[in-house]
């Protein structure tokens, strides 16, 4: 059965053959297709030929045989010559005298290897002398490798801008060659023997190095640049980091074993245990992955973002809402957050009262957003300057556009708040996204600002498109509703006409005067009610501001309470004097809608309360119930949307009509509800005593006072 050593010899034999083949093929390719006017053309062919010969000799006779060692010296001299000729690529071989001295010294040191071989063959008859010769030879190899790397550094750094691209591949290949030799002979010098593992792979490494040297020999190929994708680079860097970590841990563990005895064994096992625990805690962490990603982007790429990948991910997030069942508002936040690796964010959209309100929270449930989250001045500044607000800069006192004094405290005090991104559609802000700090903290830079600004404009167009579609759908629903009402009005009008005709016929033909009188009263009352219904339906959606007069809210509240006597418990709990300018019938109709909604949401025995109060500027009437309540999502998206109803067979226009009636009279309708606790509708108007002052003020001042 073959031993491990036999397997290693067989593997080394195969790898040296492969390396020799690669070197030979590269030499033939350079001779046939390489640029013949390059100063290193012939030297490169000769060096690759000698390297191929060295690989074959090592495969046949072994790495420590005399022919293999002699060919290796010749190979190294050839590569030093190639390095010298590379300086001639831009004419520096004649102007840099210190460089010539270094080349001569390296050549001399390499030639000394022949003397060491002669000494080893003739006079190194003892083990001590053999070890001494080996140490000196390894030291000379290290000196040559270090000197060659220094020259390579000067070659590439000092090259002109036109010569440097042509040196990129050649210098990289030679750097890999001598870096491997430096590591190889350093390990041999420290260990006192040739490292067998490195001996096995040395032939393959040299063969692979021949490939970039061949690429660099042709000008058109030398200008190529390796452009790996960011994901491949990030994964490769992660693997390299993990590999380096494991090698470091193994090296330290081996060093601890040198303590000897039980103490060394205990120290080795304890260190390995600590290292494994540390790796399990930190290697999977998002913070470490973020640090690796940022480091790779900083040092390996010209730009931070892979714009193709970012755009594909952006369109994937925005365009697949049906699969994830996320509304567009949440997908907008997620699309922006994915770009900056932010773990969460929120979206603010224009509300009903000329301000902004919270529309979506994506993975950020801890933040407390006030009812009026952004001042109008900050929105105006976003519209004028079109910039991304860096919250950290504001915290540091940096104020570029005057935003520092306008940023609300709830964003400034929220430690996780990182960036405020306005969504600008033409010259109007259609939304604002607040992003949280990524797992690996960093400063926002120009590339972040440019990309977020462009993506924000795209998202703003999506919001504008959605708003237009909703308006069209609502208009279509209103048209359908109006058609239904037209049919209803036609039928009721016919019924009213028939009843009126019946009343006239009964008045003319009835023989019993008492019966006739009762029938007439009943019929006239029915006709009056139907005509009143027709009048109300005819006024549906109309503005009632022309019929406004000074009325007492307590009077309206009592009239509403009286309509529900014997039907449901509705009571007036407070009746402070509160006169406002409004239309009595319209306000009563709006309150009936709200009270009926409260009754529908409450248990049969649960009362509904009306509360009338005033604070010196505004008067309000509140409709309070302890029913099932409503969620914030339902209030924001469905409560005041026509034809959206939670009741079977409901039109879903009660709350909408009540709000529109109150608005038409200059009032305001607000709602406060908690699921399982109940709902409070608040209808408020300016007091009649101050209504004239408010009407005479500018619209901006009126809005501020309201």
TrEMBL record:
Top-rank lineage group of the source organism: Bacteria
SUPFAM superfamilies: ATPase domain of HSP90 chaperone/DNA topoisomerase II/histidine kinase, GAF domain-like
Domain Histidine kinase: 487-689
Catalytic activity from the UniProt record: ATP + protein L-histidine = ADP + protein N-phospho-L-histidine
TM regions (residue ranges): 12-32, 44-61, 73-89, 101-120, 132-157, 169-192, 198-216, 237-260, 266-283
Top EC class of this enzyme: transferase
Keywords attached to this entry: Kinase, Membrane, Phosphoprotein, Transferase, Transmembrane, Transmembrane helix
Coiled coil: none
Range of residues in the leader sequence: none
EC number of this enzyme: 2.7.13.3
GO molecular function ontology, one term from the record: phosphorelay sensor kinase activity
Pfam families the UniProt entry points to: GAF, HATPase_c
Protein's recorded name: histidine kinase
Species whose genome carries this gene: Pontixanthobacter aestiaquae
